[in-house]
Amino acid sequence: MSWAAGSLAPRPAAAPVGAMLRAQTRAELTLSLRNGEQVLLTLIIPVGLLVVLTLVPFVSVVGRRVDFFVPGVLSLAIMSSAFTGQAIATGFERQYGVLKRLGATPLPRAVLLAAKTLSVLLVELLQLLLICAVGLALGWHPHGDATVVLLVVLGTFAFSGLGLLLGGTLRGLTTLAAANLVWFVLLLLGGVVFPLSEYGAFADVLRYLPTAALSDGLRQLLQHGQLIGRDLLSLAVWATGSLAVAAKVFRWE
Amino acid sequence: MTAAALEVVDLVKRYGDRTALDSLSFTAARGKVTALLGPNGAGKTTTVEIAEGFWPADAGIVRVLGLGPRDRSLRPRVGVMPQSGGGYPGLRAGELLALFASFHREPLDVPDLLERLGLTEHARTPFRRLSGGQQQRLSLAMAVVGRPELVFLDEPTAGLDPQARRATWDLIDALRRDGVSVLLTTHLMDEAEQLADAVVVIDHGRLVAAGTVAELTAGDGQIRFRGPVGLTLALEGATVSERPAGCYLVEGGSGPQLLAAVTAWCATEGVLVTDLRAGRSLEDVFLDLTGTEVRT
C-alpha cells in the first residue's frame, strides 16, 4: 500500500485549546473509569463503607449514624480520587514517559493540568451523586447550603496538590505504596470512620489534617448547617501550600 | 534562504563528570533524511533529546528549523518518536493515536494511518498489551499524525520484523518525497544506506564523519573478499592483509586494475572467493571510524 504523493505534505498547526482540553479530559476520564483498582478506590470502597458503617454499629457515634457517616465518606471519596488516584496515575505516567512525550506535542502543560483537574472533578461528581443517593436511601437528612461546593473544591485542590507532589517526585511503584498507605492512615485518623473525639488529646492536632478538616467541615455543615472557619482556613492552607510546593518540585519524567 | 532542519554547533552536554557531548557540530538539511549513526553510548539520543527540547545544553548552539529547541511554536511543526515508551498503558492503540491527532488542526486520518502500519486489528488493544513491534509502529504513527515539517525518530526500526521494517522505510521515503525533513538515529548500517541522504557518524559525543553514503563509502583502491584462511597473494604495488582470518583487504593502485589483478590471481591459483567488494561498505567505514571494541 503506497502513500499517495502529497499525502504527508506538512500542514503543521496546533488544534484550538478548547479541542485539546476536551480530548485530554476525555482521555483522563476514560483512564480513571477503566482502571479497576481506581474504581474500587473511588467508588466501591466509599459506598461499601457507608453502608457497612451505617448498618453495623461497631463504631459508636453521637446522633444519627447515617448523618455522621455520609460527610466522612464524602471526604474519603474526594481524597481517593484527588489524592490517591491522581498520585498513582501521575507517578506511572512519569515512569512510562507519557508526560515527557506529551511535552513534545502542542498540548500546553497548563491544558494538561486543567484536563487532569476537570477529570477529577467529574469523577467526584459521580462519587457525590452515588454516595448521596445511597445516603438518602439509608435515611440521611442533609442540611447546609451551597458552601458545600466551596468545601469540596478547596478539599479537591488540597488533595490534588498533595497527590501531584507525591506522584511528581517518586517512581510509580513507590507512589503506589505511599499513596495507599497515606490513604489508609488518613481514613483512620481523618474523622471518616472514627469520630476524632476517640483520639483524646490528639484530636486537637489531627483536626488539621486535610481529611479531618474536610470531613469535619462537611459534617458540621451537612449535619448542623454550620460553616466552620477553622476547617475552611485549614483546607485553604493545605491547598495553597501543597500546590505551591508541587509546582516547584514536580518532575515531568 | 530557509534555515536548516537542524543545526548543531559546538554542543556540549555533561552528566556529572561524564561528558556525553563534546563540542558536537553538524547540520541536517531541510527535506532530507539524515541518519545519526554511532555505537551505543555515543550520544545519539542525548543529541536528539536536546533538539526535541527535553534537556538544556550545557554549551553550544542548537537551532531547530531556525529556532531554539524549546520554542513553543515548534511543537506542532516537529514530530517526535522516542526510543521507547510514551503511551498511556491503559489507552487503546486507536484512542492513543486519536488523542495525539486531536492536538493538531489538520491531522492525518487515524484509521488510514493505523491500516498502513498494520495496526487496524490492534486498534482496540490497550497500549500495554501491544507487542514491542506494535508499540514501536504506533509510536511512529503518533510522531507523524500531526503532519509535521520535521520528525525525530530515535531508532524507529529497533526490534521490528522485516515486514514492519519495510512499512517504516516506505513511510520515511514518502515523508522525504513530500518534503518532510527526517532525522533518525540507528545502528543498522543497511538502514542508513537504504534511507539516508546524509549520514552523520558520532562517537564519544564527537563528530567523526559526515557526508552522503556515497561520499563516506568511496574508497578507490580497496578490494575486500572472503576466502580460505592463509592465502598468500603476491600482487605488485598492493598490500594484502587478512583480518580476521579468511577476510582479506587488498589496498593499492587504482580500483579497476586492482580488481582485475585480484581476480586474475584467483583464476591462476584456482581459488574461489566470495563477498568480493570494491570500495567499502558503510559498516566498514563505521568500524574504521569507531573501532571494533564492544561498547558497554
Q: Can you tell me the number of structural domains of chain B?
A: 2
> Class of the largest domain in chain B, according to the CATH hierarchy?
Alpha Beta
Q: What distance separates the N and C termini of chain B?
A: 42 Å
Multimerization state: heterodimer
Basic shape of chain B: globular
Largest pleated sheet of chain A: none
Compute the number of strand runs of chain A: 0
Specify the structural class of chain B. alpha/beta
Class per helix and strand makeup of chain A: mainly alpha
The main sheet of chain B comes to: 6 strands, mixed
Strand proportion of chain A, as a percent range, falls in: under 5%
Could you tell me the radius of gyration of chain A in angstroms?
20 Å
How many separate helices of chain A?
A: 10
Number of structural domains of chain A: 1
| Total helical elements of chain B | 9
Question: Remind me, CATH topology of the largest domain in chain B?
Answer: Rossmann fold
Chain pair sharing the greatest interface: A-B, 38 and 44 residues
The first-to-last residue Cα distance of chain A is: 37 Å
How are helices and strands ordered from N to C of chain B? Answer: EEEHEEHHHEHEHEEHEEEHEH
Topology:
The complex is a heterodimer of chains A (253) and B (296).
Chain A: H1 17-34, H2 36-55, H3 65-95, H4 98-102, H5 109-137, H6 147-167, H7 172-189, H8 203-206, H9 210-224, H10 229-249
Helix pairs in contact in A: 1-5, 2-3, 2-5, 3-5, 3-6, 3-7, 3-9, 6-9, 6-10, 9-10
Chain B: E1 6-15, E2 18-28, E3 33-37, H1 44-51, E4 59-64, E5 78-81, H2 93-101, H3 110-116, H4 132-144, E6 150-154, H5 162-177, E7 181-186, H6 189-195, E8 198-203, E9 206-211, H7 213-217, E10 222-226, E11 239-242, E12 247-251, H8 255-269, E13 274-278, H9 282-290
Parallel strand pairs in B: 3-7, 3-8, 5-6, 6-7
Antiparallel strand pairs in B: 1-2, 1-4, 8-9, 10-12, 10-13, 11-12
Helix pairs in contact in B: 2-4
